[in-house]
Amino acid sequence: MTIKVLGPGCINCRTLERRTREALTELNLQADVLKVEDLDGIVSYGILRTPGLVIDEKVVFQGGVPPVSKIKELIAKAAGGKMS
Fold it and tell me: Which residue out of 2, 8, 9, 10 is catalytically annotated?
């Protein structure tokens, strides 16, 4: 699983990255967590507001920082039952 945090490096972007890593730890999952900070890279996903969260190349959240519980739900849904 590859998870990308889209944003220019603002406090919300850093918080989303931190919460995403925390969610993965709580789920006992490993994933590649990448930051996309360049404008062209962010725009390529078609999001209108940052930060954005992309799981396996699908935008699953944008425009805010959800709680860890919500991020865990998004990851679990993206995993589609492949979690052990």
Answer: 10
Q: Which residues of the chain have pLDDT under 70?
A: 81-84
2-79 belongs to which homologous superfamily?
Glutaredoxin (3.40.30.10)
* Domain ranges across the chain: 2-79
State yes or no: is 13 an active-site residue. yes
DSSP state of 47: -
Terminal C-alpha separation, the chain: 14
56 is catalytic: no
Classify residue 80 as exposed, middle or buried by CB count within 10 Å of its CB (0-12, 13-18, 19+): exposed
| Catalytic residue of the set 3, 13, 60, 65 | 13
Q: pLDDT by residue (tens digit) across 61-73?
A: 999 999 999 999 9
- CA gap 32, 4 in Å, rounded: 8
